[in-house]
Design goal:
elongated; 2 domains; binds magnesium ion; alpha/beta; binds adenosine-5'-triphosphate
Length: 400
């Protein structure tokens, strides 16, 4: 008996290995199922020779198993408990019941608890293979619907020229190398130069996207993107001085579409996003407020923090002190913390040689070892949810 829908054409299904966990208390039966799985696209990621305790179960449900096989025969009620708990904790997993003798009433209860497949004894290799194909299909379908919006990281400056573009572009590059699909959006609509600083050329710009929001979907957006060789996609700023004054809805739509298609969207918001600030900051996963150590910068930073980050937005703020030089700082840490209402989360060293080399060569800072590249990599590492610090590459690494 099969508790799920018909088999799809196996060719169309991604057959990457399925990870299987076995709850089969009896040794002989466990070996039988392991044997039936060998030579299929599945591998056994774990097994227990007993029905699990509740805390073992939580751990197993939290792990990324695609299939869980539960032996019904030794203790059907205990097995049913396992099925119920596993299915409640993880809707993506396919639970397969393994049994030699099972009443139809018990099978219906298993199905109601969430089991999808029934493997009867003696095991038929064909039936096991078919059940695995259906589990693959399911994994793909659930994966597609489960896809959540990408994270949005907004870089804004306390003052013109404080380094927003340098940091946003190199952060985005580091993220693309470390973590996944990344899109950099240049929303410095007046004089954006993010694409230029990455050395990529683009026919289209954010202005084009914002002026065509009625047609804007992922296909339309993708056609407007340039690509850096390190894998970073870029929606450039306008080539000419742009006169676009987008509505909040237009910006919201652009970000929504971008986040549908990318794991991470990084925005260069420049130093004067003015009426866009609210929309951008509200939508952001994190806002990197870039400032230097001058009185005017700190004063602006203070005003921006008071306006946008003193309420619920406070938790998403990360202050970045750019061009930091510890020894020559005329303003001490206590004064900086007071102005910023919190210690700076990141300090990016002043590294004129690296900045000048990047400008002259067209090779972005994050592509070569340097103190700035190292901080960018640490920021990207943290933003992508990885704990600790990235390993320092020893000799031939791309970063310092
Ligand atoms: N940490 C740093 N060390 C040395 N130079 C830096 C650093 N960060 C940025 N720069 C340099 O400062 C200048 C301004 O940087 P950038 O263009 O990134 O600032 P911005 O805030 O985007 O400016 P704008 O307001 O014009 O958009 C550039 O020449 C850049 O190379
Ligand atoms: Mg800039």
């Amino acid at each position: 008996m099969v508790m799920s829908t018909s088999i799809r054409d196996t060719e169309s299904v991604s057959m990457s290995a399925l990870s299987v966990f076995l709850f089969v208390p009896d040794n002989e039966r466990r070996h039988a199922i392991a044997k039936a799985l060998s030579g299929t696209q599945a591998h056994i990621g774990g097994e227990l020779a007993a029905y699990p305790r509740i805390d073992d179960l939580a751990q197993i449900s939290g792990a990324d198993y695609d299939v869980i096989v539960v032996d019904l025969d030794p203790d059907p009620e205990a097995a049913l408990d396992v099925v119920e708990n596993v299915c409640a904790a993880n809707a993506a997993v396919t639970v397969m019941i393994y049994a030699a003798h099972a009443s139809s009433e018990m099978l219906v209860r298993c199905m109601r608890a969430g089991a999808r497949e029934f493997l009867s004894e003696p095991l038929q290799p064909g039936a096991v293979a078919e059940a695995l194909v259906r589990a693959s299909v399911r994994r793909e379908e659930v994966g597609r619907t489960k896809k959540t919006a990408g994270k949005l990281f907004v870089f804004a400056g306390a003052k013109g020229g404080c380094g927003v573009t340098t940091l946003a572009t190199n952060f985005a590059l580091s993220l693309a190398k470390e973590a996944g699909k990344v899109l950099l959006v240049d929303l410095d609509l007046h004089l954006g130069d993010a694409a230029l600083s990455l050395g990529v050329a683009s026919k289209f710009s954010a202005a084009d996207a914002l002026e065509n929001t009625s047609r804007l979907d992922l296909d339309f957006l993708s056609a407007m993107l340039a690509k850096h060789q390190a894998g970073l996609s870029v929606l450039a700023g306008a080539d000419a001085v742009s006169n676009v004054h987008p509505t909040k809805d237009a910006v919201g739509r652009l970000l929504q579409v971008a986040r549908e298609g990318f794991d991470y969207v990084v925005v260069d918001a420049g130093a004067k996003p003015a009426d866009l600030s609210e929309t951008l900051f509200e939508a952001a996963t994190a806002v990197y407020l870039v400032t230097q150590l001058g009185i005017p910068d700190l004063r602006n930073a203070n005003r921006l923090i008071a306006r946008y980050f003193s309420g619920p937005g406070a938790r998403k703020l990360e202050v970045v002190l750019n061009r930091f030089q510890a020894r020559s700082a005329e303003i001490d840490d206590a004064a900086i913390t007071k102005a910023l209402t919190q210690p700076a989360k990141w300090k990016v060293p002043n590294d004129f040689p690296a900045a000048r080399k990047a400008q002259n060569s067209g090779v972005p800072i994050a592509m070569e070892p340097s103190p700035i590249a190292r901080v960018m990599r640490e920021m990207a590492w943290a933003a992508s949810g990885q704990t600790g610090k990235p390993e320092r590459k020893k000799k031939f690494g791309l970063f310092g």
